[in-house]
Amino acid sequence: MAENLKGCWVPCKSSWAALRRRCREQHVWCRALGVPRRNRSDFEVEYLCDYKRVRDEEFYLVKWQGYPSSSNTWEPRKNLRCRGLLKQLHQDLARVPGGPARPGPRGLPARAASYLVQKAQQRQALQRWERLLNSTRSHRGRIVVENEVDLHGPPRDFVYINEYKVGAGVNLVPVAAGCECGDCLAEAAGGCCPGASSNKFAYNEAGQVCVRAGLPIYECNSHCRCGADCPNRVVQRGIRYDLCIFRTSDGRGWGVRTLQRIRKNSFVMEYVGEIITSEEAERRGQVYDRQGATYLFDLDYVEDVYTVDAAHYGNISHFVNHSCDPNLQVYNVFIESLDERLPRIALFATRPIRAGEELTFDYNMRVDPVDAESTRMDSNFGLSGASCGSPRARRRIECKCGAAACRKFLF
């Protein structure tokens, strides 16, 4: 009988807060519930809701961890040992919509107190989302989430994935053979995997791309004799830089900036999403156009058959904004599949990128053909982001990148 119940579950009738309160009442600690051993019997400040001054003494309205808002209490400054939360409250007060608010003997104006609670709850939601992203990612680079601009929380209906999600009607044919090189960079047999496809070795000894934009990259695959440290395995190792998803202050929605310095020609990230047929992309594109948002990236290396849709399934590239003067360049990469209709989309740095700088690429990228080889690739990518609409809508989309050489319109 018991074996038939495997995989079954029922929802808990107690709330998260009630479970934490129960733990403290019973002197039980639970890391998952946020009741660590060191403070299972203590009251912990979750966030600060209000602020007042009575004569010369400061008081703060405290929301206690594991207790409902009805249990909030006013506490004098001397009773609180949460320096970070105190500093955060006063920073938030300076940003209250409608101007800074002054505390009175009964507390802050309602608009300011409401803003403090919303901001605290937003930070909690973003912290939970940040933990989820980092528990889901398979790459080395960690993800940080920040929003000091508005009250927007985590995006809805977005699932973080590390590799392509194959949609209906798409058939990925795996590669059947690999190279036999002893050293793929110095002693490449038959030109290694790139040579087998009559292409050049794409990387130098530092893992930087050294072929021009427009030429394909062929990396070693699971059938190759070489190991994980092979210099011809760059994109497949994943993101190695710490990156931050942040809310832009100029109306472009979310963006991504690097927390570490990135060298020129270094791999930064893949554009990952759901692979769908062009017919399905047309249908979804019409829906996205009505919503004013889409993330469709056409894969047109040899023919326009498939599209990557990162609207609901994607990685951190989902949040990268457009620029007419970008610091990332798109390359097509082939690893476990040599189907030229289904390249992987890799973004490499076009120049040295400082820590703290926003990462961008050109949604309407064009590569000038310099020889017969490069005319096949990167000639027409179609992608639109959250603030850009859809190229299929055939309407001019205003560009907000702010670059000196801005084209003023995306499409």
Characteristic key phrases:
OB fold (Dihydrolipoamide Acetyltransferase, E2P), elongated, alpha/beta, four-stranded mixed sheet, 5 helices, 2 domains, Beta-clip-like, 411 residues, 16% helix
Detailed description of the structure:
- The structure is a single chain.
- By secondary structure, this protein is an alpha/beta fold.
- It folds into 2 domains: 44-134, OB fold (Dihydrolipoamide Acetyltransferase, E2P) (Beta Barrel); 143-393, SET domain (Beta-clip-like).
- Helix content is 16%, strand content 19%.
- It has 5 helices and 18 strands.
- It has helices at 16-25, 83-93, 110-136, 192-196, 278-291; strands spanning 45-54, 57-64, 73-76, 143-146, 159-160, 165-166, 217-218, 243-247, 254-258, 267-271, 274-277, 296-299, 306-309, 313-314, 321-322, 328-334, 344-349, 360-361.
- A 4-stranded mixed beta sheet has the order 6-11-13-12. A 4-stranded mixed beta sheet has the order 7-16-17-10, with no helix packed on it.
- Strand 1 and strand 2 (57-64) form a beta hairpin.
- The chain is elongated, with a radius of gyration of 26 Å.
